[in-house]
Amino acid sequence: MIRRERSPSTPPTKAIGTVRDRLRGRRRFLIQAAGGSLALLFAPLPTPAQSSADPWTTLDAVLRHLLPTEPDSPGAADINALAYLRFVTDDPKVDAGERAFIVQGARWIDELSVSRYASPFADLDETGRERLLRDTARSAAGENWIATLLTYLFEALLTAPAYGGNPQGIGWRWLEYVPGFPLPGPGTRYPELPL
Question: Which of 35, 51, 153, 40 is nearest to 107 (CA)?
């Protein structure tokens, strides 16, 4: 194993700050690159049909497909995944690029659905949705978009109900998880705390 010697002129706190800045820069680059790749993947094909579907309707359909309700487990609808995603994307502390990436991804997948099947994504049957999502996941940008939605699905499953997901602890009960206390209430949610 090769160890790098730290320069004696660089204090440890400055070196940590520099690493953090580089990581933030890389993250921004990856998000922007993913958006550009998605634009290429989902570039409108020459077709007379264009989707005018609400991106939130499409996102709801995607979330419900990714985490369907089963007899013994809650799905996206049961955990209020769409409400939680709206809560997160409306938060001014969330990176605007990520918010745009989520919404624009919904528009692109809906346009792709209209170009391939002459129907918005939300109107496709389960097989059509599965096919379209699998095709989307074949690109790095599409895989990133789906992974981002899955991350928010798991957050909605595990979050405190005060944040809009996991109503009445349905996800906790399903996983037999006991949350820490005290739980946040409407007056103690993080966006309402002073900075």
Answer: 51
Reduced to 3 states (helix: H, G, I; strand: E, B; else coil), residue 111 is helix
Neighbour tally for 152: CB within 10 Å: 22
The CB-based long-range contact list for 2-10 (8 Å cut-off, 24+ gap) reads none
Question: Cα–Cα distance between 87 and 155 in angstroms, integer?
Answer: 12
Q: What's the CA dihedral at 54, 115, 68, 105 to 10 degrees?
A: -60
* 134 closest CA partner among 43, 45, 62: 62
pTM over 0.90? The answer is no
Query: Over the stretch 120-155, which tens digit does the pLDDT of each residue have?
Result: 999 999 999 999 999 999 999 999 999 999 999 999
Q: Which two tokens stand for residue 191?
A: 């966006």
Instruction: Report pLDDT digits (tens) over 49-61.
Output: 455 678 999 999 9
DSSP, res 168? G
Tell me if residue 184 falls in helix, strand or coil.
coil
- The structure tokens listed for 188 are 């103690």
Both structure tokens of 177: 């998880």
Closest to 105 (Cα-Cα) out of 67, 136, 79, 73 = 136
Q: Nearest 10 degrees: CA dihedral of 152, 156, 158, 160?
A: 130
**Owner of token pair 């359909």:** 61
Burial (CB < 10 A; 0-12, 13-18, 19+), residue 164, is buried
